[in-house]
């Protein structure tokens, strides 16, 4: 169907707003989806024409991110978070109740086009769920009462910006503050220090601090900055020296906080944004970058206006823009780019692809983003928390930071604690803190186990609560999900395994096919159709996916299965049938089509399924 | 000048700066199984069939740079089992019915299966529903057989300059799409002498009305292992047409 004149004009305006820049394709498609409630085929042609790129490129991007749809979504598009922590707070029942009241099924748009409901991956509101998104905006603490009111508002056609404010309230819930969260910070103070002390001295403070990336992988921050400035490892020297040639460098803040159970970056961006942006600007001063990006996950749309206003205030105060703090030639600015529902974009090279307006497919490495990142230029990609720490280290010095924590893990770590505990929320601990102490502080009792680092991390059992936070023992990006003895571990593992199959980008064979095989194999066992051989098979596929996948997603996708198979083999074994082989299909029901075609239903048209014991 | 070398399964192999492991291996006559790799195009690294162990870690030989002194394991039981499993994954993910496929005997997926002694598909079949595009008068696109290697994508973009293909979707729903408003091949500029039409390692892209010109039994891999054929075509010193 061709576009109407209004639609065509709207698309033209959207493209103009983004300067007809193909690297902004994800942003443009977000706006088109928002405006037309979908991205119709005719819009693909129009966008390709206006952006002077191939139609397949537009289509491939539109079909990669889950927030884009080719069929119209409702005028009210409601997504319910499918994180295990939302499940535990009753999200599935709430979703079923909502659908019943609206008279639709999950995944459907109501025939009047007014409303659609679906599930979505973790929205990062794990301690104030069940949560969801209404037209992209976060909605928290869903209850049956709240659902009743939402249904009334939908049926009365009330614009979302006139819905009660409390539906959209997002609390910080900070319960333990340490270095990062309780050190007073004045916007501009760290930058002034950096400019007074000089770039070399600022760099050496970061180096001295021992700061390692807070996204989970833990690469030394100073090394990353140094390689970005000087080129690859072979040619770099310490302390920071001359840059290699004339290039454009970029500073990217990874705020694609998609690991289920993680929400600490949300809190930093909501209440410590200046500290984060200041860390980025200090980095820009050190590596000599002129352009920065904050890649904000689409689920955090509610933070967008707030963050834009912080950036604008910083420009007004001379902390961004040209000649920052009056320093001649120190030009740096930050743009916010929104994601559109793809966990893989938390992987730094996939994030860069997305920033360039492409599908979020992780790149081959080497080269690494520090030498060939955004537009193949040297690029620092750091986590939100890393930049927030870097700002304070610049202000307070490396020793101040390094005096806390352990030898290989300096400083503190923000934890997002959710699940079965009395006080879920944000806790900042020095590295080296034992899990038992954390569980005590958050009021967790009768704890069965803790998932540390999200689905891609590790499940530890009650016998391991003496283990400690840190790169030496339990590294984590910050997700800390508590489960008590009322929980079914296999249900948790199933939730995580389905998550990875849903989020696999599809680039490499082991992850694309393997995560789906794992999902099906686990479902078969959990449904009571598995035999001993199926358990062995589950282990085999897990190992293959872990050891041959292209990127971190695939390499960790089997962790929930592997870490629970190791700790709780008996839970799996209890679900097995006492046979050596159990087919995954029902022979008799497989003959149904043949029976229908031949019009038979007599005894001879049925088969007993026999299995050799 | 000293020669740079890596070791593959104990054998010393020379390489030049900038070569990947598979390039060095091929030049020295060592076959590493692969499907998405074709020396004519930029290394891709998606099929993972060329997984080798480098200093104890799994790497894709087609994208990983050779560096002085690397210890590479290639032809080991463990790696070949891994490759066999990956091949089985490719088989069950699509709809591959060799006996009725025109590419049988000339198909690299099938040939790699034979080479790795793959005796069954092992996993449950996915039986995906994929669209066949027979719209073009001379070229058939049978997505059932597509293994998502992106060779046609790369050939059409980098050699033909037509951008006829791209991969779209995500995860297990990844699929090959065609660059036209209708999504059909007939509305593109593709032609039978395009590189993209000849580069498909399986039977997903075929030229019409050429069925069974070479009888089954006399086809490329009926008499020769893919290891021989691959080296013959890709080894620069043997005058391979695609060598660098």
If you had to describe this structure to a student in words, what would you say it looks like?
The complex is a heterodimer of chains A (613) and B (244). Chain A is built from 26 helices and 15 strands. Chain A is an alpha/beta fold. Chain A folds into five domains: 5-62, no CATH class; 76-168, Glutaredoxin (3-Layer(aba) Sandwich); 175-402, Rossmann fold (3-Layer(aba) Sandwich), CATH 3.40.50.11540; 412-487, Ubiquitin-like (UB roll) (Roll), CATH 3.10.20.600; 491-574, Up-down Bundle (de novo design (two linked rop proteins)). In chain A, strand 4 (132-134) and strand 5 (137-139) form a beta hairpin. Chain B is α+β, with helices and mostly antiparallel strands and 244 residues long. Chain B has two domains: 4-75, Ubiquitin-like (UB roll) (Roll); 97-223, Alpha-Beta Plaits (2-Layer Sandwich). Helices cover 24% and strands 16% of the residues of chain B. In chain B, strands 2-1-5-3-4 form a five-stranded mixed β-sheet, with helices on both faces. In chain B, strand 8 (165-168) and strand 9 form a beta hairpin. The two termini of chain B are 22 Å apart.
